[in-house]
């Protein structure tokens, strides 16, 4: 951070408060307690049962049902928000206005308008606003990114992804819940913006709350991805396959010891001089070795929190930065619009007046994820 913190904050652990102790909040609390760069100063939780559970585990940490009580504490320099997406904008805005740095779980917001306002507020207040796209800190994900960027896979033709399980039902729908994971990984791997997205979804138990969705995503440069996400599956599946011109790679998040496999397999095409028919193209199948690289184990959430602390102290841009968060929110907004239009593709076009780098804006009418398509 360009010297905006006092020497006290730089040389001592950063005081942080966690907002929300439901599904993901306990994981953040556990990792904060394990990070030497951070010190847990408080929890904001409105549910009395969850608050009492936290108190039993952390009797010396302040618990408040009202966020403002923690925001008034000068020892709290940062806030980590782990609440439903529809609450992110209000909570993050209040924290930024109070002069706190903010880590907010995915997605950054439920509309492009909200995300842009949050980013502008963070810039005006000179504070870190970091979306919690934890998978960009995953060692296997970074290994695949290394393979793509080194050229070992060749040109990336397409990527398939399956993220399914008998999941926790949430009112924001499966797209807001699971698609940010895949989109963050795809954008991180390809380093190219989304140009078009088409989505087919299905609501089984409640209208307007899709439990299953299929996303076709096009990226600048020609790569495409097909993403299947669902809460209605008999077993947990977290698998992505990258098909390149030279090699293919499989990433399996649920595998503990062989999470990445590199396949020297493919189809080579050659042709005779001036072919007149398709039969004159020569197709050769290639089947070589399968390599399982050694990958050091590390908890992504812990690495994410370390990056957050480093951004606060030094001014360095975190790997999961607000521009990535905004790009994902744009894609999610377009995805919900496409689903509302029965799968019609929605284009995301370059914004000539953009303020945040290679900014792109979906050609959509606007609206939050929780309302579009209902």
Give an overview in words:
Helices cover 32% and strands 28% of the residues. With 374 residues, it is α/β, with parallel strands linked by helices. The protein has a ten-stranded mixed beta sheet with strand order 14-13-12-11-7-10-9-8-15-16, covered by helices on one side. A six-stranded parallel beta sheet has the order 3-2-1-4-5-6, sandwiched between helices. Helix 6 (112-125) packs antiparallel against helix 10. The protein starts with 6 loop residues before the first helix and ends in a 12-residue tail after the last strand.
Features:
single chain, six-stranded parallel beta sheet, 374 residues, 32% helix, alpha/beta
Write the layout of secondary structure elements.
Elements: H1 7-11, E1 14-19, H2 25-34, E2 38-44, H3 48-57, E3 62-64, H4 67-71, E4 78-81, H5 88-97, E5 101-105, H6 112-125, E6 129-132, H7 139-150, E7 156-164, H8 173-190, E8 194-202, E9 212-219, E10 224-230, E11 237-244, E12 248-252, E13 260-271, E14 281-291, H9 300-314, H10 322-340, E15 346-350, E16 360-362
Parallel strand pairs: 1-2, 1-4, 2-3, 4-5, 5-6, 7-10
Antiparallel strand pairs: 7-11, 8-9, 8-15, 9-10, 11-12, 12-13, 13-14, 15-16
């Amino acid at each position: 951070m360009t010297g905006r913190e006092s020497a006290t904050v730089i040389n001592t652990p950063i005081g942080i408060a966690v907002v929300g102790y439901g599904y993901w909040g306990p994981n953040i609390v556990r990792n904060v307690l394990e990070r030497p760069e951070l010190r847990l100063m408080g929890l904001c939780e409105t549910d009395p049962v969850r608050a009492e559970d936290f108190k039993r585990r952390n009797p010396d940490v302040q618990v408040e049902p009202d966020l403002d009580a923690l925001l008034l504490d000068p020892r709290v320099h940062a806030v980590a928000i782990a609440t439903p997406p529809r609450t992110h904008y209000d909570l993050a805005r209040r924290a930024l206005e109070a002069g706190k740095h903010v880590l907010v779980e995915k997605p950054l917001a439920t509309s492009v308008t909200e995300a842009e306002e949050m980013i502008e507020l963070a810039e005006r207040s000179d504070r870190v606003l970091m979306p919690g796209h934890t998978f960009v800190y995953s060692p296997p994900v970074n290994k695949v990114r290394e393979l793509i960027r080194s050229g070992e896979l060749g040109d990336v033709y397409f990527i398939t992804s399956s993220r399914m399980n008998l999941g926790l039902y949430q009112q924001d729908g499966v797209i807001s819940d699971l698609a940010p994971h895949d989109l963050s990984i795809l954008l991180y791997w390809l380093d190219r913006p989304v140009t078009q997205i088409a989505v087919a979804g299905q609501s089984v138990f409640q209208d307007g709350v899709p439990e299953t969705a299929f996303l076709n995503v096009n990226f600048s440069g020609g790569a495409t991805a097909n993403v299947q996400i669902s809460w209605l599956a008999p077993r947990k599946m977290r698998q992505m396959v990258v098909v390149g011109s030279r090699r293919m790679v499989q990433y399996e998040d649920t595998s503990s010891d062989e999470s990445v496999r590199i396949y020297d397999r493919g189809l080579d095409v050659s042709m005779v001089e001036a072919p007149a028919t398709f039969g004159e193209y020569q197709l050769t199948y290639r089947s070589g070795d399968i390599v399982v690289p050694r990958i050091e184990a590390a908890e992504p959430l812990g690495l994410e929190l370390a990056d957050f602390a480093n951004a606060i102290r030094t001014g360095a841009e975190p790997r999961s930065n607000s521009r990535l968060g905004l790009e994902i929110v744009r894609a999610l907004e377009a995805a919900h619009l496409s689903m509302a239009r029965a799968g019609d593709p929605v284009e995301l076009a370059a914004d000539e007046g953009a303020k945040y780098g290679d900014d792109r804006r979906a050609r959509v009418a606007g609206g939050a994820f929780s309302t579009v398509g209902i």
